[in-house]
């Protein structure tokens, strides 16, 4: 039997009229030192994946999420994993205004799980420094939980935040840092 988990990426909409460096993509630093997206396992008491995600977001990101409604329209993908446990992860992306993201970031310290499960929010650097490795290539060398790194890359591709050739260059540079 597979467990289900839903994860969420807040993203502001300024990329539509600005450079990608002005787009914000957030992840969280977990208690185990790994990066991931807010969310978690759906409980039997949750009436839907979205309801489970909403509950998890409020626990991990706090009261600012009560005004953000994640719906089935925000669903993007699902992945099946067999290891370390059988799980189906469902990925959602919600477009928010920068002010909403900043409010969530500021109020996240008041979340029930802050300092326990969630150590803080991290903005993903959607750029590469002139040295060719700083920024996103170095960020991708972090330790990610489960499939959150592939979810991040999927989001960058599907939302067209970076062109495919840019993503390939970033991945190539990040692999050089590993060796």
From TrEMBL:
EC number: 3.6.1.64
Record-linked InterPro entries: NUDIX_hydrolase-like_dom_sf, NUDIX_hydrolase_dom, NudT16
Extent of the signal sequence: none
Keyword Metal-binding appears in the UniProt entry: no
Example of a GO biological process term: mRNA catabolic process
Stretches assigned to the Nudix hydrolase domain: 1-154
Coiled-coil ranges from the UniProt annotation: none
Gene Ontology CC annotation, any one: nucleoplasm
This protein's UniProt keywords: Nucleotide metabolism, Nucleus, RNA-binding
GO molecular function per UniProt: 5'-(N(7)-methylguanosine 5'-triphospho)-[mRNA] hydrolase activity; IDP phosphatase activity; phosphodiesterase decapping endonuclease activity; snoRNA binding
Catalytic activity: dIDP + H2O = dIMP + phosphate + H(+); IDP + H2O = IMP + phosphate + H(+); a 5'-end (N(7)-methyl 5'-triphosphoguanosine)-ribonucleoside in mRNA + H2O = N(7)-methyl-GDP + a 5'-end phospho-ribonucleoside in mRNA + 2 H(+)
Cofactor(s) needed: Co(2+)
Compartments where located: Nucleus, Nucleolus; Nucleus, Nucleoplasm
Top-level taxon of origin: Eukaryota
Family: Belongs to the Nudix hydrolase family. NUDT16 subfamily.
Name under which the protein is recorded: U8 snoRNA-decapping enzyme
Organism, scientific name: Xenopus tropicalis
């Amino acid at each position: 039997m597979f467990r289900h988990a839903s994860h969420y990426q807040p993203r502001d909409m300024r990329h539509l009229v600005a450079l990608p460096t002005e787009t914000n993509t957030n992840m969280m630093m977990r208690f185990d030192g790994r990066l991931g997206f807010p969310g978690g396992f759906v409980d039997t008491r949750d009436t839907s994946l979205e309801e489970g995600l909403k509950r998890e977001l409020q626990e991990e990101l706090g009261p600012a999420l009560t005004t953000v409604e994640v719906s089935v329209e925000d669903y993007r993908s699902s992945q099946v994993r067999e290891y370390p446990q059988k799980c189906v992860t469902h990925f959602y992306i919600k477009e928010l205004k920068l002010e909403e993201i900043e409010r969530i970031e500021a109020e996240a310290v008041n979340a029930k799980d802050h300092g326990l499960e969630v150590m803080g929010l991290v903005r993903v650097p959607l750029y590469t420094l002139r040295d060719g490795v700083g920024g996103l290539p170095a960020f991708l060398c972090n330790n990610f939980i489960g499939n959150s790194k592939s979810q991040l890359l999927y989001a960058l591709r599907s939302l067209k935040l970076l062109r495919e050739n840019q993503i390939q260059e970033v991945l190539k540079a990040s692999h050089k840092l590993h060796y």
